[in-house]
Amino acid sequence: KCVASCEAEFVAGSAAAQEVKWLRTLIQPIDPHVVVQPTELMIDNTGAAELASDNKVSKRLKHIDIWYNHLRWCTAEGSISICRIGTSENPADVFTKPSDKIKFAKFREMVGLRPA
What we know:
By secondary structure, the protein is mostly helical. It has helices at about 5-25, 45-55, 70-75, 100-110, and strands spanning about 40-45, 80-85. The chain folds into two domains: about 5-85, no CATH class; about 90-115, no CATH class. A two-stranded parallel ribbon has the order 1-2. The radius of gyration is 16 Å and the shape is flat.
């Protein structure tokens, strides 16, 4: 159970890291050159981005299950790099936050959707 948005973003990032790890493992035999660089994981919460990039034991995370530290392990081994993305540039926000027409159109285009 997460008690702050920072923790929720960290847990979501850990789930994303698991998916990235699986995809990299799937692609590696097909084209080894594709997975040479770390996969960039964009996080729009500064605290979560800092926690993901820091391997120190944190009092802020002591109640979060060890399983969620998978994100930290992936950043430490170099398969994932954390990139802080601002809320105004985060295309995922179109699904979670209210947007005006201009923002909605911008995010819709970013995720590859077109008007009907």
